[in-house]
Amino acid sequence: MSRSDELFERAVKVIPGGVNSPVRAYGSVGMTPRFIEGATGPYVVDADSKRYIDYISSWGPMILGHNNPEVRNAVIRKAESGLSFGAATESEVEMAEFICENIPSIEMIRMVNSGTEAVMSAIRAARGYTGRNKIVKFAGCYHGHSDALLVKAGSGVMTAGIPDSAGVPAGATQDTLTAVYNNLESVKMLFEENEGQIAAVIVEPVAANMGVVLPKEGFLKGLRELCTKNGTVLIFDEVITGFRLAFGGAQERFGIEADLVTYGKIIGAGMPVGAFGGKREIMEVIAPVGHVYQAGTLSGNPVAMAAGLTQLKILKDHPEIYTNMSHMGDKLYEGMKELVKKYGKPWKVNHICSLGCIYFTDQDVENYEDAKTSDTEEFARYFRYMLEHGVHLGPSQFEAMFLSNAHTEETTKETLDIFEGFLKAE
Ligand SMILES: N[C@H](C=O)CCC(=O)O
Questions:
Q1: pLDDT grade for 426, boundaries at 50, 70 and 90
Q2: Which residues contact 127 (CB under 8 A, 6 or more apart)?
Q3: 54 by DSSP, 3-state: which?
Q4: pLDDT at residue 163 above 80?
Q5: The domain spanning residue 255 has which CATH number?
Q6: What is the DSSP letter of 170?
C-alpha cells in the first residue's frame, strides 16, 4: 500500500472524506488523493516521493512557483517577532498602502482570512451602502462557501453536483438572483424585474471555477454600465484573477473598474489571507466608521502580510513575469489545442494568460450549461493518465490549471508529451 493510501485510511476516520476541502478529494476521478509532502518551483512531491509537475499551484497563490526563497525568508524573519497580536501592526498598513497605491479602483481595503470572508464582507458592505438586499451572481461562478453564494455555484459544488448545498436555509438565498455568464440580457431582465432592489452584481471577471470561461467582448463593460445606471455596486471577485491576469488583475486586463474588489490567497502567497476594497464612500460603511459590522481575530496577520507583500512587490518590480507567464500559457494551452486537433478530437481548450482548461465536449464553452456538457468520465481518464505520468492537475473538470512563473519550456514540453501519450492511448 502506498504511503498516500495509508494516510488516506487514517484521514477518512477523522476528517469528512479525508480532506479539509472537497476539491482535494479524488472521488470524482475514481481514486484516493495523493498526499503532498513538499514543493519547489513548478513541482510537488507526494508522500511516496513521487515528483509531479504541478498545475494546482495551491489553487492560485503560488504564482512565483512553490517555496519561493524571498517569500519564505520574509515569513521566517517576521515570525521571529511573534505570530499574532490581535492588535494593529505596521505590516497591515504597508499592505493596504501598497494595494491602494497600485490598484486604481481601490481607495480603502480591509484584510480578512480567505476569499469566502472577503466576498461575504463585500456583499454586506454593498447592502449596507445601498440599503438594498438583493444580489446577482452568475451560474457557475464560485465565490466561496458562504450561504448566500451557494446557488448554482462552481468549483467543488459543481464537481459534486450539488449546486444548491444542503444546510443552507431558503431564507439565506432568497435574495440571491442568478444570471447566465456572458449573457447581458439575463442580467437586464433581473434588473427590470427587481427595480431599485439590487445591491450588488458579483462576478468572476474570468470564470475560473467552472473550468475557465472567458468573458465575451462587451460583457464586463455591459455589467459596468448596468450597475452604474441602476446605482448597484459592481463587485469583481478577483480571488483567482487578481495579480494573475496582469499586475492589476482583470480590471487592468479588460480596462474596467469595479466598485468593490475581493482578493484571496494570492495576496498571502500561500498564507491564509483575503481582502476586500474599493471606493472610499462604500468602504466607510464598515465599522467602526460606519454601521456594517465585519471583524476577524487573525485578519491582517503580520506573518501573512509579510509573505503576501513580498510576493506582490516582486510581481510589481518584475513586469516580465506576466509576459513570461502569458508566453508559457500560449505554448502550453495552444499546444494542447494543436494536439487535440492532430488526434481528431472535438474537445475545447479555453485559456487566458496562465489559466487554462480542457473540456471534453464538441461545444464552445461560454457558460455553466456549456461547461456541464463536458464528459466527466473522459476527464477522469485524462486526469488519471496525467497523474500516473507525473502531472498534478486539480481532480475536477471544473477547476482551472494554474501556471506559475517557475514553469519552464521543459515542463511545458514534458506536459505536452504526456498529453500526447494520453491521446495516443485513447
Ligand atoms: N476552486 C476553489 C478555489 O478557487 C478551490 C479551493 C478550495 O475550495 O479548496
A1: confident
A2: 133, 135, 199, 200, 292
A3: strand
A4: no
A5: 3.40.640.10
A6: H
* d(CA 143, ligand 1 centre) in Å: 9
* Atom nearest to 239 CA in ligand 1: 4
Q: Best mutation site among 119, 155, 244 for ligand 1, i.e. most ligand atoms within 8 A of its Cβ?
A: 155
Residue 338 CA: distances (Å) to CA of 327, 345, 389, 425: 16, 10, 20, 17
Q: For a pocket test of ligand 1, which of 21, 162, 238, 241 has the largest count of ligand atoms closer than 8 A to its C-beta? A: 21
C-alpha 23 – ligand 1 centre gap (Å):
6
Sign of CA dihedral 308, 314, 319, 323: negative
Of 317, 346, 374, which residue is a domain's last?
A: 317
Active site residues: 142, 237, 265
Predicted TM-score (pTM) of the model is 0.98
Domain boundary among 287, 317, 347: 317
Q: Are residues 122 and 233 in the same domain?
A: yes
pLDDT in the model for residue 306: 98
Establish whether residue 308 lines the binding site of ligand 1, counting it when its CB lies within 6 angstroms of any ligand atom: no
Shared domain for 85 and 168, answered yes or no, is yes
Question: Ligand 1 center to residue 254 CA distance, Å?
Answer: 24
- Residue nearest (by alpha carbon) to ligand 1 atom 3: 59
> Which residue type occupies 318?
H
| Nearest residue by C-alpha to atom 1 in ligand 1 | 155
User: Is residue 340's pLDDT more than 80?
Assistant: yes
**DSSP of 247-311:** TTHHHHHHT---SEEEE-GGGGBTBS-EEEEE-HHHHTTBTTTSSB----TTTT-HHHHHHHHHH
Q: Which three cell numbers stand for residue 109?
A: 481595503
Tell whether 48 and 164 lie within a shared domain. Answer: no
Determine the Cα–Cα distance for residues 117 and 255; give it in Å rounded to an integer: 26
Grid cell for residue 278 = 474599493
Which ranges of 62-145 does DSSP label H, i.e. alpha helix?
69-79, 90-102, 115-130
Q: Is 238 in the pocket of ligand 1 (CB under 6 A)?
A: no
Residues 368/140, Cβ–Cβ less than 8 Å: yes
User: In which domain, by residue range, is 414 found?
Assistant: 3-67+320-425
- At 106 the three-state DSSP class reads coil
pLDDT digits (tens, 9 = 90+) for 316-331: 999 999 999 999 999 9
What mean pLDDT is reported for the chain? 97
Out of 23, 24, 145, 206, mutate this one to test ligand 1's pocket (max ligand atoms within 8 Å of CB): namely 23
Q: Which ipTM value was assigned to this complex?
A: 0.97
The single-letter code of the amino acid at 104 is P
